[in-house]
Design goal:
The protein folds into 2 domains: 97 residues, Killer Toxin P4, Chain A, CATH 3.30.430.20; 132 residues, Gnk2 domain, C-X8-C-X2-C motif (Killer Toxin P4, Chain A, 2-Layer Sandwich), CATH 3.30.430. The chain is built from 5 helices and 10 strands, in the order H-E-H-E-E-H-E-E-E-H-E-E-H-E-E. The protein is elongated. The longest helix is centred in the middle third of the chain and has 18 residues. The protein has a 5-stranded antiparallel β-sheet. The chain has a 5-stranded antiparallel β-sheet with strand order 6-9-10-8-7, sandwiched between helices. By secondary structure, the protein is of the alpha+beta class. It holds the Pfam family Stress-antifung.
Length: 274
């Protein structure tokens, strides 16, 4: 895990810092989890089924979807696999990310019967067991954007409000995601995202996001100005710069709006000493 920590003054230096932090974090990807040992060794038939799935079926079968579950083969060598892309991706961008993730997971987890791999904006997973519609909280991967938070306690208060809102709204969205933008000063905003796999129940999505938020609020990472937590069933991220595009889909439950249509906007200034 890469952590960048130094203080910078001035708007130009701040932009450089954010760019460099983003670059450093991207170099840590992909994150993979593919346990070694005889208990995770795939049979020849399982490998053949996985190869068939990765050679087009995983993505091509569903077309333009940003997430999908599928299988290949028969028990006991059946392969269960899924992928998920970040909500704001185009189908083409999602396909490119999934293809790269498939290449990575084959390289890093060759011969295993269970593995998961994250790229910065998508995840690919496969297993010998049926994990569809099942809450999975391990493994957990995370990375933090270090930086100077002048009032960490107050920042944590706003972050807590933000994630409480995301945990409430994302599970209710049929696409299982929500974003939140908050003013934290006259010139800074906090951008946050929470997303679950679409096959999770409302309750399981909420539980997954709560588990992710527990990592964000751990004492060891207090004061970090950004970060992400990656879990097989969900992921969250928050930064002081916009890292996503706001979709414009007619008829969808607006991901940054409350049910009454009001824009969600918390101001940190009322919690700070003038």
């Amino acid at each position: 895990m890469s952590i960048l920590a130094f203080t910078c003054l001035g708007s130009i230096c701040l932009l450089y810092l954010l760019s460099f932090v983003s670059m450093v974090m991207s170099q840590t990807f992909p994150y993979s989890h593919c346990p070694c040992g005889s208990n995770n060794t795939a049979s020849t038939k399982f490998r053949d089924n996985l190869n068939n799935l990765f050679n087009g079926k995983l993505y091509d079968e569903r077309g333009n979807s940003l997430s999908y579950n599928t299988t290949d083969g028969e028990i006991p060598d059946r392969v269960y696999s899924n992928y998920i892309c970040r909500f704001d991706f185009s189908p083409e961008t999602c396909r490119n990310c999934v293809n790269k993730a498939i290449k990575n997971i084959v390289e890093q987890c060759n011969g295993t019967q269970e593995a998961v791999l994250w790229r910065p904006t998508c995840m690919v997973r496969y297993s010998y067991r049926n994990f569809f519609s099942t809450l999975e909280l391990v493994p957990i991967k995370y990375a933090w954007t270090a930086g100077n938070i002048t009032r960490p306690a107050q920042f944590a208060m706003i972050l807590n409000q933000t994630f409480n809102d995301l945990i409430e709204r994302a599970p209710l969205n049929p696409s299982k995601y929500a974003i939140h933008e908050s003013n934290i000063s006259d010139f800074e905003r906090l951008y946050s995202l929470a997303q679950c796999t679409e096959d999770l129940s409302t309750e399981d999505c909420s539980a997954c996001l709560k588990a992710a938020f527990e990592k964000v609020t751990a004492d060891s990472v207090q004061g970090m100005q950004g970060g992400r937590v990656l879990i097989p069933s969900c992921f969250v991220r928050y930064e002081l710069f916009r890292f996503y595009e706001v979709p414009n889909v007619v008829g969808s439950p607006g991901p940054i709006f409350q049910p009454d249509g009001e824009f969600i906007k918390f101001s940190l200034s009322k919690y700070l000493d003038k």
